[in-house]
Specification:
Layout lengths: L1 E3 L4 H22 L11 H24 L3 E5 L3 E4 L4 E4 L3 E7 L2 E6 L12 H10 L9 E4 L7 H19 L1
Antiparallel strand pairs: 1-2, 2-3, 3-4, 5-6, 6-7
Length: 168
């Protein structure tokens, strides 16, 4: 089952912020406002901020613009396009919802640290990983999914329970 992307208010705000930063960078680069001093180079800070935001959201933007599925769920796995991670249902201990996110508790989270395809997300998760910590680091953002959160959670749990029944 594929879940398509939707344009949420938060996502549109993030895209608009990137556009404003890029526009401001171009304006300051080609028509400098300040003739002298440190603020003459403020476009570098604006460009760096825009670049960091683009790194963080490029897969979400791509999925929304080209109508790619954000989340794919089947009998064996969950594929999260934004983080480019495949979670096998047999490895998931539990799934719960909190605000706009689905948190995945994995039996062996250390096995998934190197499987995260998004390099930025992989760096953050490895940095925060602690084997003694019970906080889940594997998160699916449901704000971009064009379906109700309760429906997505119900489908994920049904597939997870079906996978557990088939493995026993």
């Amino acid at each position: 089952m594929d879940f398509k992307a939707r344009f949420s208010y938060i996502f549109v705000t993030q895209i608009l912020l990137i556009v404003v930063l890029l526009f401001s960078t171009g304006r300051h680069l080609f028509a400098p406002v300040h003739e002298s001093g440190f603020w003459r180079y403020d476009y570098i800070l604006l460009a760096l901020t825009a670049f960091l935001w683009l790194i963080q959201f490029y897969r979400s933007i791509y999925a929304c613009l080209f109508n790619k599925p954000i989340l794919t769920v089947n009998e064996t796995c969950i594929y999260d396009f934004v983080t480019d991670t495949t979670y096998y249902l047999k490895d998931i201990e539990g799934i719960y919802e909190k605000k706009t996110f689905l948190y995945l508790n994995l039996y062996n989270p250390k096995d998934y640290l190197d499987k995260i395809g998004n390099p930025h997300r992989r760096l953050v998760v490895k940095r925060w990983f602690n084997s003694n910590n019970n906080r889940p680091l594997f998160i699916i953002n449901t704000d971009l999914i064009d379906a109700k959160r309760s429906f997505v959670l119900e489908k994920l749990n049904n597939y997870r329970l079906q996978a557990l029944a088939n493995s026993n």
